[in-house]
Design a protein that fits this description.
The structure holds 2 protein chains of 2 kinds.
Chain A lengths: L1 H22 L3 E2 H11 L8 H13 L3 E8 L2 E8 L1 H26 L2 H4 L3
Antiparallel strand pairs in A: 1-3, 2-3
Helix pairs in contact in A: 1-3, 1-4
Chain B lengths: L5 H13 L4 H20 L4 H11 L2 H14 L4 H6 L2 H5 L9 H35 L7 H27 L2 H5 L3
Helix pairs in contact in B: 1-2, 2-3, 7-8
Classes of the chains: A alpha+beta, B mainly alpha.
């Protein structure tokens, strides 16, 4: 299970992060991994090694802004969407939903029709 | 929710330090790992087991991998790199707004103004020494001209320096978008 899902995860990480952030005001890294875990009931796990490069890449592209808050004596970095980040998030989400649709169509087509006899 | 003691956090801190992380990624990962250990303790594990489980996932190998990804993917894109100066590259993941970036950016200009000012002062000095030795003075003599040129050079340098300085201070905000 694990290696397969991580292969698919890689291409959708950006969309997942944007989607989660579009629903919440701001989130920090660990919170994002927990949100993914909870929503998929533990089936999907984001490792920090996969998550943080994506977060910082998005920040670099100007889609996210960060804010460091001191929590229990250590710094916690919160991420939130910028205006352009919001736009891109909406666009990515709808794009991905269409993609899932197409994939379902593709997989549900009975074999006899698929080969067009 | 269980909270880690400073000593326990310190162990994670040392661990990350030994894995060679630095900068912002360090504080962020520390927070991440502390949250994770606290989570495992909350679901009932003792500290040692929680720490062990966390560090199994965050082992040295995966931390190294993360560093490599950073070096590879988060450097400037090619077209940005073509335009970037040494300062841009140097300050890419660093804080640009506290002053060093602006100072480095304006260094060349400051140097020119300083040279101009020094040259002007030199000219004024020469004319002044001439006045002392000759005890006569006229603006319409070569020495008078040198004096005027010196005063002009110094004032241009000073005025330009202050005019430009105001503009430099706005630089960091704009550059942050990069």
């Amino acid at each position: 299970m694990e290696p397969v899902s991580s292969e698919f995860l890689r291409g959708t990480l950006k969309t997942i992060v944007l989607k989660l952030l579009s629903e919440q005001d701001k989130m920090y890294g660990y919170q994002i991994t927990q949100a993914v875990k909870e929503r998929t009931k533990g089936e999907l796990t984001l490792t920090f090694g996969a998550l943080y490069p994506v977060l910082h890449k998005l920040e670099q592209e100007g889609l996210l802004i960060t804010e460091s808050v001191e929590v229990e004596g250590r710094l916690r970095k919160y991420y939130s969407l910028t205006d352009s980040g919001n736009e891109v998030a909406l666009q990515k989400i709808s794009e991905f939903e269409r993609f899932v649709d197409y994939m379902q169509q593709l997989f549900q087509t009975p074999p006899s029709i698929a080969y067009g006899h | 929710m269980e909270k880690l003691t400073p000593q326990q956090i310190d162990r994670l801190y040392t661990y990350l330090l030994q894995s060679g992380l630095t900068g912002e990624l360090f504080t962020e990962l520390l927070d991440h790992l502390v949250c994770e250990v606290e989570h495992y303790m909350w679901i009932g594990l003792p500290f040692e087991a929680a720490m062990h489980k966390t560090l199994m996932e965050a082992n040295a190998e995966s931390v190294q991998k993360l560093r490599k990804i950073y070096q590879r993917e988060l450097t400037l894109a090619d077209d940005q790199l073509a335009e970037a100066s040494l300062d841009d590259i140097l300050f890419q993941f660093r804080n640009k707004s506290y002053g060093a970036y602006a100072m480095r950016q304006s260094y060349n200009r400051t140097l020119v103004y300083a040279l101009f000012g020094a040259l002007g002062l030199g000219l004024m000095m020469i004319a002044f020494l001439h006045l002392i030795s000759q005890k006569t003075w006229s603006y319409w003599s070569p020495w008078g001209m040198i004096w005027i040129a010196g005063v002009a050079a110094v004032s241009v340098a000073v005025v330009m320096y202050f005019l430009k300085q105001e503009r430099w201070q706005t630089v960091p905000d704009g550059e942050d978008e990069l």
